[in-house]
Each structure stands twice: as C-alpha cells, then as structure tokens.
Amino acid sequence: MLKIGRSHYEALRQHGEETYPHECCGVLLGRMDGDGRVVTSIARCGNTREDSPQNRYNIDPKELIRIQREAHERGEDIVGFYHSHPDHPPRWSPTDLAEAHWLGCSYVITSVEKGKAVTTNSFELAGSDENVKTFVDEKIEVV
Amino acid sequence: MTKIHIPTPLRQYAGKQADITVKAGTVAEALSELVSKHPDLRRHLYTEDGKLRSFVNVYLNDEDVRYLQKEATPVKDSDTISIVPSIAGGCSGLRIL
After folding, report:
1. Is the minimum CB–CB distance between A3 and chain B shorter than 8 Å?
2. CATH number at residue A49
C-alpha cells in the first residue's frame, strides 16, 4: 500500500496536466512502512527524453542525487517515482517494466486525457532481482 | 575513507545501511571493497561477466564516472560515490485511449 497526503497526490496529478501532451516525472520521498510506503513529500523532475517526451520519460541521475541529498537532510528516503501517460492507460507498459530497477519501490502512473488527470494507480516493483521483477498492483490511500 | 551511498532497493543487501565507507584509491577499488564486504550486492551491480550493469549509474560526487575515467577514476577521502539505478519508462507500447 502507498499512503500519500491529499496535497501531494493532487500535485503529482497536476504535474501531468501541466506537461501534457508530454510525460511528467518525479520522485516520491518518505519512508518504508512495513510492506508499504508512506509519502511525505514529492519532487518534480525534468524529463530528459526530449526525443520522445510524449511516450517516454527519464530522470537525470544527477538530479536524483540532489533530491536524495536534500531528502536525507529532512530524514526522508526515496520510496518511489511517478510519471504520467498522456492519452494512454494508467497502467504499466512493457517499457515501464523493462526500465524499472528500484525494487521494493512504488511506481505511480496517472492517465492524462486531453489535458486532464483522470486515474492514478500505483504499482510496487516486486521481485528479488532483475530477472524476476514484476509490477504488483497496490492500493493508494490518500490521507 | 570514501563514502558510498547505497540506493534504497539495495540496502537490504548492505546490512540495511544507507552509507558505507571504504578505503580505496579508485572507483573500481571502492566498489570492489563494497561487494567484498557485502557479497549479496554483487549480482545486483554486476553482470555474470563482471561488468557493471547498464542501468547502474555511478557518480563521483556530482559527476557521472562514465565521463571521467570510468571505474579508474581516482577517489579522495572526502568524496562520495553514489550508486543510482536508472529511472525511466513511458507509455510506449500501450494502446492509445
């Protein structure tokens, strides 16, 4: 399960509306909580896939290092990532799975249809290593 | 001693530590020391033929070592090595709504 405050939930959805028709992306920060995760802040990122931003995203590791450092100072950890699917379903694609490597973290996807955020889903990247990884649906609890 | 920052998904293989200090002269030596201390990390960082996995980015402070001297990049005591798995994806491959 992914617990997230209403303001952060709405903010990540709004990010997708702002970048439409391109994919938005960002980082979920917080703490692990048993088998789930609690989000206490989010950090917007730039999408470095300027060649295909309408259906691909990539976060610059250098940006992530900065976000991670700042989060660490606040006592937070990286617990997942979010991105949007412009005019595409709010579920993981083969590309999403192939390029996901943060096992045990949440991947949140929002469908943005004609500029409006519609559905937001979350998936835990499960598995013990790259060869057996899979996305598992997880509930989002907006608090 | 050089600090190596361990990403969240790999901490369970590093004694649940977020940062590990090692004594090393290069990035290669630092990573070698790391997997020597925590052997379970090896398969997550390296392929079977001993190469760093393509999605594993290694930064020395704020620089990608690919653009420095790769794993031969020298390190100092005040340096931090960050291991950062790639974050990417996209709706490519899904049917349009």
Report:
1. no
2. 3.40.140.10
Kind of pairing between the strands at A140-142 and A134-138: unpaired
CA distance A79 to B57: 18
- Total structural domains within chain A: 1
Residue A31's domain spans which residues?
2-142
Sequence-ordered list of residues with C-beta below 8 angstroms from that of A61, at least 6 positions apart, any chain: B57, B59, B64, B82, B84, B86, B87
Burial of A136 (0-12, 13-18, 19+ CB in 10 A): exposed
Element spanning B37, H or E: helix B27-37
Q: What stretch of H or E contains B63?
A: strand B63-64
pLDDT digits (tens, 9 = 90+) for A55-91: 999 999 999 999 999 999 999 999 999 999 999 999 9
- Scanning A85-104 for CB atoms below 8 A from B yields 85-89, 91-104
pTM equals: 0.95
Helix, strand, coil content of chain B in percent (nearest 5): 30, 30, 40
The yes-or-no verdict on residue B7 having pLDDT over 90 is yes
* pLDDT tens, position by position, B35-46: 999 999 999 999
Tell me what percent of the residues of chain A surpass a pLDDT of 70. 100
Catalytic residues of A: 23
The CATH architecture annotation of domain B2-85 reads Roll (3.10)
- A14: which 2 tokens? 């709004």
Q: Domain locations in chain B?
A: 2-85
> What is the predicted ipTM?
0.92
Mean pLDDT of A21-28: 98
